[in-house]
Amino acid sequence: MEGPILETQTAGVPATAASGGRRVIVCAGTGCVANGSKKVLAALEVQMAAAGLDVVLEFRPEGHGDGVRVSHSGCQGFCQMGPLVTILPENILYTKVTADDVPDIVEKTLVQGQPVERLLYIEPRTREKCLGPDQIPFYQRQTRSVLKECGFIDPDDIREYVAHGGYAAAGKAFSEMDGQGVCDVISQSGLRGRGGGGFPTGRKWEAARVQTSPKKYVICNGDEGDPGAFMDRSLMEGNPHCVIEGMMIAARGIGADEGYIYVRAEYPLAVKRMRKAVADAEAAGYLGDNLFGSGQSFRLEVMEGAGAFVCGEETALIASIEGLRGMPAPKPPFPAQQGLWRKPTIINNVETLAQIPRIISEGAASYRSLGTETSPGTKTFALTGHVSNTGLIEVPFGATLREVVLNIGGGVTDDRGFIDEKGFKAVQIGGPSGGCLTPDLLDLPLDFDSLRSVGAMVGSGGLVVMNQKTCMVSVARFFMEFTQRESCGKCVLCREGTKQLLALLDDVIEGRGTAETLSLLETLGHAVQVGSLCGLGKTAPNPVLSTLKHFRKDYEEHVFDKRCSAGRCKALAMPTINAARCKGCRLCVKACPAGAISGEKKQPHVIDEAVCIKCGACATACKFGAVEGI
Ligand SMILES: Cc1cc2nc3c(=O)[nH]c(=O)nc-3n(C[C@H](O)[C@H](O)[C@H](O)COP(=O)(O)O)c2cc1C
Ligand code: SF4
Ligand code: SF4
Ligand code: FES
To answer: By alpha-carbon position, which residue is closest to atom 4 of ligand 2?
Structure first.
């Protein structure tokens, strides 16, 4: 299996763990770069050189001394705590590092071997300092499989990927297996697509494999248009060769010789890294002709997306690659039968493809050891919202919502970021196509079938945690506005129906809602589901229908009491002063332009609803968070 290419590439390149020298890893993912990690890296270079430490930016062959190496890495998932700096082999993790912290890191840690205490992560519940990922619940409770190398290998250095066993699975597929053998292993693994639908990957590949056409294509779907989702971006930025290797194996499985990686244009770093990885893989002989002596060729091109959410839908994506307007087409024919340029094509999501090398290397049974019977393996989620630890996480399918929100996420927070043990209101899962989960579902296993049974879906893996101060009508409106804007306009019910649903939600939010508005929302929501061609229209009403079902009280309060107790809907907001929190400091009295607030000094104050003009000045002025509902 190991042809000359692998030997050439691995020669002299240290694997991270095997490397004797100390390494300083600066996270170069988009989140940390936005928070200033490049300045940290530059300061480290200067100060380590000044301290006389042996610094190299590139990975070097073993045996060239064991000085300190500085490396860029991909996202490590804990973006909220970035910029992150990891020191190996001690595995110390420094959080929220700035360039001003660098002298201490160099002097105390790299020279004296001591941690810089103030840069360590503090567990919000116990207030204990954690030295590294091994002690941080956010990492401890995860099972990082597809993300394992993200953040720990240099995504721009193919030699590192190879040194970690990369391209060995492709070598095995091309030199020891035929197309049917590859498809069989993927079918046996039970792998299901991570792009939203959960379709069995092996079955899709087999459908393309049996087509007799001499020309076939493999497409990687890196469009990731869901608001808040960044799993695929992190994989493409953090481990691009793994995605390429997955595509090579797919090409072996179906007999394709050409492929496209379709990346969202708004992901410039992912585009750059994927392009470099493709060029490096070609230069190293992993892409091109006669791969591993098999006689089969495979070449890849990276394409930037057309900027529309609907272009992530597979038939629209194909149209977009062909240079046409990205609009979905009816199925059948399925892309596996007639796809790009009417040739058999398989389209898989980035995360689906990144799972493939491990399945081929370790076997289907090993893959099935994680996850559930019908949803094997792991899933990445973008955990955001009112939760202590936000970021990119990976758990086996079947992990419960409780595990994800309370343990990995560290608990629900109030609007000021403090843990609020009773604050959990809902989790929105699956982005604009998804639904809401309520506190009574905390022990629900997160897998394709369990989620479907409660009217939600894994979707792309967005998980937004919401506290009691969240207005669920506004949440539904946020997603409806998104899908309405993104509808391609082909189907009347999607194009016009989403517009009307949005207008009905506005009626509720702005105080014009009636009982009829609620029943219209339901009737029209179901009609849009049934009458739309593609998944965008079919799922667009999900956030509305699911919040109407699980949070009807929020809607009824808006419609019948003309109130938004979460204080999010301006037209219905009415501030009140929480007597338990009010110190009677009179700051709000001074701030109120309408003279609506009264009360004795050092006694709880009250707001006269008839006089209040709902400007919100009192809430801004109050230092004790006593003004609520606005
Ligand atoms: C409106 C819409 C947007 C989609 N966007 C994406 C996307 O960004 N990435 C993705 O992998 N799949 C997306 N899909 C699903 C794809 O159509 C397709 O099912 C998926 O790429 C198949 O890959 P998988 O089998 O690996 O999941 C979208 C579907 C719809 C209806
Ligand atoms: S359902 Fe909507 S997005 Fe999909 S094809 Fe029809 S109009 Fe376009
Ligand atoms: S919202 Fe404005 S008008 Fe109403 S009580 Fe507060 S400060 Fe006064
Ligand atoms: S970008 Fe640094 S942890 Fe995500």
So the answer is: 534
The 3-state DSSP class for residue 236 equals: helix
Structure tokens at 118: 């103030």
Q: State the distance from the centre of ligand 4 to the C-alpha of 196, rounded, in angstroms.
A: 24
377 Rama class: left (phi>0) / alpha (psi -120 to 50) / beta: left
User: Which helix (H) or strand (E) is 255 found in, with range?
Assistant: none
Q: For a substitution probing ligand 2, which of 495, 498, 499, 500 has the most ligand atoms within 8 Å of its CB? A: 495
Q: Could you state, in chain order, the average pLDDT of each consecutive group of 10 residues for the chain (630 residues)?
A: 39 37 84 91 89 54 52 82 90 95 94 94 88 90 91 89 96 98 98 95 98 98 91 94 98 98 95 97 97 97 92 97 96 97 98 98 97 96 92 95 92 87 92 89 93 86 92 96 96 98 98 97 98 96 94 96 88 90 96 96 94 91 90
Could you give the CA distance from residue 621 to residue 295 in angstroms, rounded to a whole number? 73
Q: Residue 29 and residue 261: Cα distance in Å, rounded?
A: 20
H-only helix segments in 55-127: 102-104
Q: Which residues contact 353 (CB under 8 A, 6 or more apart)?
A: 220, 243, 246, 247, 250
Residue 597 CB–ligand 3 contact under 6 Å: yes
pLDDT at 123: 86
Bond before 332 cis per omega within 30 degrees: yes
480 alpha carbon to ligand 3 midpoint, in Å? 31
CA-closest candidate to residue 147, choices 48, 220, 88, 234: 234
Give the pLDDT score at 124. Answer: 80
The enclosing H or E element of 485 equals: helix 472-486
φ/ψ of residue 383, rounded to 5: -90, 120
Distances in whole angstroms, Cα of residue 493 to Cα of each of 196, 303, 479: 22, 31, 17
Q: Pairing relation of β-strands 378-385 and 424-429?
A: unpaired
pLDDT of residue 21: 67
Between CA 120 and CA 86 the distance in angstroms is 11
Q: Which amino acid is at 381?
A: F
Q: Assign residue 499 a region: left if phi > 0, alpha if psi is -120 to 50, beta otherwise?
A: alpha
Q: Is the CB of 211 under 6 A from ligand 4?
A: no
> What does the alpha-carbon distance between residue 582 and residue 602 come to, in Å, rounded to a whole number?
8
Ligand 4 pocket residue status of 32, Cβ below 6 Å: yes
Ligand 1 pocket member 349 (CB < 6 A): yes
Whole-prediction pTM: 0.88
Residue 589 in contact with ligand 3 by CB distance below 6 A: no
Distance 617 CA to ligand 3 centre (A): 6
